[in-house]
Amino acid sequence: MNFILDQHAAGASATWLRRDAAVGEPHYSLRDLTELDGRLEAHLEGLILAGAAGWDLAVEELKWQEPGEVFVVAALAIEAGDAEKQQVAFQSVDGSGELRRALISALAWVPWERCLPLADQCLQRDDGFWRYVGVAAYDLHRVDPGDRLVDWISDDDETVVARAARCVGTLGGTDLLDRLGGLVAHEDDAVRFHAAWSLALRRGDPAAVGAMTEFALSESSFSGDAGRLLTSVMSIDQASRLINQLAQGGDAQLRLATVLSGHLGIVDGIPWLLEMMKIPQHARVAGESFSRITGLRLDQRPLEGEWPTGFVAGPDDDPDNDDVELDADENLPWPSPEDIAAWWQTHHDRFAAGVRYLLGWDVSDPDWQRKILVLGRQRERATAAIELAIDDPQFPLMEVRARGPSQIKTLGCGRLPTEEYRCNQLESGPASSC
């Protein structure tokens, strides 16, 4: 029995860590995410069925002070609706941003009816962090808090204000957008960014777009999110100028320019992407951008290349090497620039200038956006969700990190297709049904 419980405890924390990364990785589809969620649910259920023994083991694992273990305890406590257990979960996150994020992830994981009482309790606390947690719960579940959102935007804690400003954008509707205008010039970066993000997303507000442009060029932690949204809300000419400006910067900005070229989705950038594929540190992300535009899969011969001789990315076996940063592109295929260029030479005529493409089809087509949400991979799905929200300011932004079954219900899907069928359906474009 102890061995089985140990497996469930270790499996639950490890699976959550895998899921936490998977929601933003390039090779996970909704089907993959749903299967991963099924494994996580099975491990949590095993601990729940064990009763006190399962709970005690989960609490014991908190000694490691790792986010996976915090998620497990928090999910069990919230699901149980037990105030004492919830207090244990709350006390486990003091002082660590990663542990706090795991707690918020647990609030997003449980059904809303379980989350609601705890979210409202958090909103009554004096500590601004806990009010932030409460706002985040409403935001992640896409539940409209009504007039309380006005109060949250005026909170005396800047983290609460920032999350509330974000919530205005994710929930949709235009009633509160005017209240964000003054926050675009706020002295706090997070408040300024999230207010500008919501206004740019829902209204294309020029001042907000200007603020987002500053973030995109700043090499701050917000630069990537800012740049990705800007490629959707700016005109093609404006976005192209932003990408060109980034491409003149250092390695981080050059990488972002490569990413944004794929997000913008126009064929004008393809010759440059083909050149970037020849530079090892940018090759894989350039290949991803090419795939985003054209829909061409690079994980098959002869389009997939080899790891370049002498190139190092991610941690290695050298005990004297202090660089332990993970390879950000480890799940992307290595492109073969010559073979991809030959394919482009043969097929470029089917792509028109001045059109933004996502996986080979016009990203502005709402049928294609919805099809990508069902069949695309996570990064592509995030783009489709943004495009839908821009097209309909009243439409809540689809949370592509939510539990798989919840997303399937929101999208009105039946069964999700196999990988082969998924790829075939994407190749056939928006006209065919899922």
Topology:
Elements: H1 2-22, H2 30-49, H3 52-60, H4 67-80, H5 83-91, H6 97-109, H7 112-123, H8 128-140, H9 148-153, H10 158-171, H11 189-203, H12 206-216, H13 223-233, H14 236-247, H15 251-264, H16 270-276, H17 280-294, H18 337-347, E1 357-358, E2 361-362, H19 366-375, H20 378-391, H21 404-411, H22 419-427
Antiparallel strand pairs: 1-2
Please describe what this structure looks like:
The chain is mainly α and 434 residues long. The chain is 62% helix and 1% strand. It has helices spanning 2-22, 30-49, 52-60, 67-80, 83-91, 97-109, 112-123, 128-140, 148-153, 158-171, 189-203, 206-216, 223-233, 236-247, 251-264, 270-276, 280-294, 337-347, 366-375, 378-391, 404-411, 419-427, and strands at 357-358, 361-362. It has a two-stranded antiparallel ribbon. Helix 2 (30-49) crosses helix 21 (404-411) and helix 19 packs antiparallel against helix 20.
In the sheet with the most strands, the strands line up as 1-2
- Mean of the pLDDT scores? 94
Oligomer: single chain
List how many beta strands DSSP finds. Answer: 2
Helix and strand content put the structural class at: mainly alpha
Low-confidence residue ranges = none
What form results from the Cα inertia axes? globular
Cα distance, first to last residue? 44 Å
Major sheet summary line: 2 strands, antiparallel
Strand content: under 5%
Helix content: 55-70%
Element-by-element helix/strand order: HHHHHHHHHHHHHHHHHHEEHHHH
Query: How large is the count of helical segments?
Result: 22
Q: Tell me the Rg in angstroms.
A: 22 Å
